[in-house]
Amino acid sequence: MMKQLKTEIVAVGTELLLGQISNTNAQWLSQQLALFGVNVYHHTVVGDNLQRVKAIFNQAHARSDVIIVTGGLGPTDDDLTREAFQAMSGMDIVEHAPSMDKITAFFTKRGTNMTPNNRKQARVFSGASVLENHAGMAPGMIVTHEERIWVFLPGVPREMKHLASTSVFPYLQNLTGEKQVIKSMILKFIGIGESQLEHELYDLIQNQSNPTLAPLAQESGVVIRLTARHNSETEANSLLEQTKAQVEDRLGEYLFGVDEQTIEQQIIDLLKSSGKTIAAAESLTGGMFTDKLVSVSGASAACKGSIVCYDTDVKRNVLGISEEVLVEDGTVSEVCAEQMAEKVSGLLGSSYGISFTGVAGPMSIEDQQPGTVFVSIYDHMNKRSETKGYHLHGDRNSVRHRATIKGLEFLFNYLKSTLE
After folding, report:
1. In this structure, are residues 374 and 358 in contact, taking their beta carbons and an 8 Å threshold?
2. CA atoms lying within 13 Å on the CB side of residue 160
3. How far is residue 107's CA from residue 177's CA, in Å, rounded to a whole number?
4. Which of 83, 335, 350, 384 could be joined to 304 by an S-S link, Cβ 3.0–4.6 Å?
5. Residue 317 per-residue DSSP state
């Protein structure tokens, strides 16, 4: 009885390589297979070319115990999965009568003529376990060849999921014996770099076994993926919680969320739970910060709105920034940022105001270099401001994006320190 299955998922279809559709089949299969303790080692995508598909199949056969193939089972000339596997394995292909009867009945019921190429969808490998497709035409197949298990599924996600859930997963669970659960948890951090985070957790990472820890850098911060294995889902979750507590003891000040939680969601939750509101004055970010907040369901209870004050006249005539500040300190300055945050709080009647001003690039402004950014928070109740200056790297849009992330980090930490 096979206890550990080294599994590979091969997606066939030129449309995947062209980026016309995303390979969501592989993502879904990997997520589901983890619940059965099945390890997915490789994702491969190959176009509709007989020789290339055959080469990929040979590669998969050499390195994997189970190969799940999605796509290439349709009626057209570019559906080459059967032909490629036959060329590799030498197995005979026969017409599956029940599948052919189903296809014929489909066209009869619709009152349309069946083109000859539709017979192709009923072709299966001799000796295969044929998986009846209740969601479409082409059946799936499970074939054993030279001690490798090959699973062939349609590429249409609805059909693939139906066959995988009803036939493939039970079959694989039978092979693995006792069900093993693989559970993951994503811990999200902001305000700390990947190298520093890895340094702080060095001993945990080096001594990891179950759960495992994997630091990953992302645009909006750093994440750690914890992965636990156990034959009990409850115990797997317990292992994750224990390791999370160890990580939190060391890096809790940077941890802002778990799994699907976002920093903007956390900010909205903090504001709503305390009955506070926020308004923004955005120059270089041009509304990106507010867009992040309002993407959260229920944000209207905490986000008053924003004023995009990209032009100096808008800062002067709408926000009411003083002429003295605009002339003497400039629009890209700590003083201007502070006035922007205070003015927008007053204009929109919010508990807090936050402002963004700076130079996105590519040219300098007011002798300030591209990447120079000021973010200010005004606290209406306490009548005080906090302002931070940043020197951010990257092209114009990267600077704007990073300024937005810095603003979210700044506001989140400020709210945590004053509201919790």
Report:
1. yes
2. 24
3. 42
4. 350
5. I
The answer to whether 416 touches 270, Cβ cutoff 8 Å, is yes
pLDDT above 70 (res 227): yes
β-strands 140-145, 66-70: how paired? unpaired
| Residue labelled with tokens 């394995």 | 89
pLDDT digits over 102-158, tens only? 999 888 888 888 988 889 999 999 999 999 998 888 899 999 999 999 999 999 999
Residue 322: phi, psi to the nearest 5? -70, 150
Average pLDDT, the chain: 92
Class at the top of the CATH hierarchy for domain 6-176: alpha beta
Q: What count of other Cβ atoms lies within 10 Å of the Cβ of residue 215?
A: 16
Q: Are strands 255-258 and 181-189 parallel, antiparallel or unpaired?
A: antiparallel
Contact call for residues 359 and 371 (beta carbons, < 8 A) = yes
Bridge partners of residue 43, in order along the sequence: 9
Question: Going by CATH, does the domain composed of 263-419 fall within 3.90.950.20?
Answer: yes
pTM of the complete model beyond 0.90: no
Taking the domain 181-258, which CATH number applies? 3.30.70.2860
Beta strand ranges found along 47-103 (DSSP E): 66-70, 93-95
What is 199-262 written as a DSSP string? HHTHHHHHT--SSEEEEEEETTEEEEEEEEEESSHHHHHHHHHHHHHHHHHHHTTTEEEETT--
pLDDT digits (tens, 9 = 90+) for 238-268: 999 999 999 999 999 999 999 989 999 999 9
